[in-house]
Amino acid sequence: AQRVTQPEKLLSVFKGAPVELKCNYSYSGSPELFWYVQYSRQRLQLLLRHISRESIKGFTADLNKGETSFHLKKPFAQEEDSAMYYCALSGHQAGTALIFGKGTTLSVSS
Amino acid sequence: DTGVSQNPRHKITKRGQNVTFRCDPISEHNRLYWYRQTLGQGPEFLTYFQNEAQLEKSRLLSDRFSAERPKGSFSTLEIQRTEQGDSAMYLCASSLALTGYGNTIYFGEGSWLTVV
User: Fold this and answer.
1) Are residues A43 and B45, on separate chains, in Cβ contact within 8 Å?
2) Which of A27, A19, A43 is closest to B9 using CA atoms?
3) In chain A, what residues touch B104 (CB-CB under 8 Å)?
4) Which of A13, B17, B25, B41 shows its CA 20 to 30 Å from the CA of B114?
């Protein structure tokens, strides 16, 4: 069965500290993995996808097929990174509905 | 284009009443999705359309729920005989289906439903 697991409900760090938001998945096939972010009072929006292999707002994520993980990392957290982060999975066919994890709240304090 | 638009943004209804939500996707997008989100949970997939065809429905979509996209543009989600357990945020999203990878799904701000 398709499943996305985010083990941490809340992650609290100080400004400037490294951040790692964990995501593990279960999927029989070649999934596409995403991170979505929801800032306070804003809509859910795409942060990054594993296909792009890019860094957005200093965040990166590497797909590890052996460990079935797609952890989100940032070397130095900023207060504006405080938000809810969702890991999501899609099948290999374009347009297949996303399956989301339960989300992790990141709180960055000064 | 202002993105995916949903109406109403908030709805309070009495148990047993019917409610309908509307979603206007990004204009050139051919795929439209409905999700439900409750507190402490990630969005849960309900159904999606490609143009006017409803291609997939989740088992979460009970017989009281019906979704339509009559002309392949806007969509409606109707909940009949609402129950308190239907209280949630209903999210609409759209995308432009392409072959292979690279399909970004854009979300609306959601419609909050409270059943009292």
Assistant:
1) no
2) A43
3) 46, 49
4) B25
